[in-house]
Amino acid sequence: EVQLVESGGGLVQAGGSLRLSCAASGFRFDGYAIGWARRAPGKVREGVSCISSGDGTTWYVDSVKGRFTISSDTAKNTMYLQMNDLKPEDTAVYYCVARWGSSSPYWGQGTQVTVSS
Question: Cα separation of 96 and 109, whole Å?
Answer without folding.
Answer: 8
